[in-house]
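Late entry, written up from scratch paper. The run itself happened at the end of the previous shift, but nothing got recorded in the book at the time, so transcribing now.
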Amino acid sequence: MTYQDTLARWQQADLPADLAAELKQLSPAEQEDAFYQNLPFGTAGMRGQMGVGTNRINVVMVALVTEALAAYIDQSGDAAKKAGVVIAFDSRHHSKEFARVASRVLSAHGIKVYRFSSLRPTPELSFSVRHLKAFAGIMITASHNPKQDNGYKVYGADGGQMIPEAVQAVIDGMAAVENEFAIVQDETEANVQVVDDDLDNAYLAEVKTISVDRDLIQKEGADLKFVYTPLHGTGQYIGEKALQQAGFTNYTIVKEQAELDGDFPTVKKPNPEDPAALSLAIEYAKKEEADLVVATDPDADRMGAAVRLADGSYQVLSGNQIAGLMVNYLLAAKKKNQTLPENGAIVTSIVSSRFASEIAKSYGVATLDVLTGFKYIAAMIDRFEEKKDYTYLFGFEESFGYLVKPFAHDKDAIQALVLFAEMAAYYKEKGQSFADGLKKLYEQHGYFEEKTVAFDFPGVNGHEEMAALMTKFRNQKLETVGDQLVLATQDFASQRQIDRAGAEKKLPQPKANVLKYWLADGSWIALRPSGTEPKLKLYMGVVADSQAEADAKLQNFETMMKEKIKA
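Output as recorded:
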């Protein structure tokens, strides 16, 4: 079936007024882009631009993917239908509407639905699936994406994102739907139960256990001054409750960014990875001479931070720096309290810094590397619980995602918010700043620096162009990057590592379209197409004896790799 055939069906359908009006305004090129494919559904669900068409997210596509999920639950039996599905949503345009469509499609199948009446963070949705022993969860969010996007994330019974077999079942179910405009919705919502306070309280009770040193908070928490911004999203309601129950009350909310607004009017991107997203909060902090700034993205699964320097300016920390500081604080506290297990482990992604790994190693704690995507960290937690070979202590990704305790099985900015504030109190008690603590860790373990560069591949041919580029790198053996020899190449698609001598080793991670190069000086470079956006990501990590040397290395590698990618 061509995109013109699909377009014609949509033109003849009884669409909602807003979609019908938009469809009439599309140019021929826009029609092709809107209908040349179904918005891809993967292990992270589907995410994309809101609007009319099969390559957009709208009420029709939400109904279609939910119908496929419902068919999968039907096939799993009555117990699965009774266990049900938890649904939450964020502050984006149409999020509440999409959540209601999903709940009505599920209810029409006789599937139990637990739906929040107002917006909640992604980590609370993950927790709620586990707490209610539900079969699945749906989170309507595009996380940190721009305002024009929305998304549909699906979670399994463990609170982690869906396993590949379940994803394939949903993909097959979507293909099996003959008429997406005839999907039945239960307008009475007979099988829908609204859940709010009970789950909030249960989640907050678990968050309360995050604190490592309550005496420290009692001594320093009142004096610690910081600024918090939820970036127009879900974090404020639960985040403030979490901070206050931990004992932190001397903070200021960025008023303009506390307003729930899917246009995110105060930022270009509501992403704490982007230093510009913290600009307004830093202005607040300068006026108040606050010790730090913390920010959560719209669905509160990512946290960013900036810390005050001696001259009164503020340094925006990278996700890897935040993770390194957290790992050091957690492990030092556990060692002091004599609660550090002999088989402790942290879990991180193959494109995250080695900084936290070196810190963990100094405490006798192992690091296990998984593929990018927090579902793989969740799967490793499940493995630990089953095999008892390791005790989970911390998980993180370089993209500002952290999980302290696994009562949620996805990255959790609310947990991170509490731990980061406690860590600030720790340094304040020592008469130090975060910058002092970070410098000391660099002096002990080396100066680690990382950078991610994204190359856009939009449009109909974008995925083919990315695939061709990955094939080019696989076919031409990379011998050097800058002045550094490539000691080993890891191809996660073939699950093989090949060193300079030609010796091969099987990689333990599942297959994935990622290439990683290990260099002679301990630095590394990786290439990976994004799973949620039409982007090819270049990851680089260096280690050196000084900050200046690390910065120079990183710049050199970036220049060389850009030349190779664009050649």
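The CA atoms of residues 214 and 552 lie 42 Å apart.
(Scratch paper discarded after transcription.)
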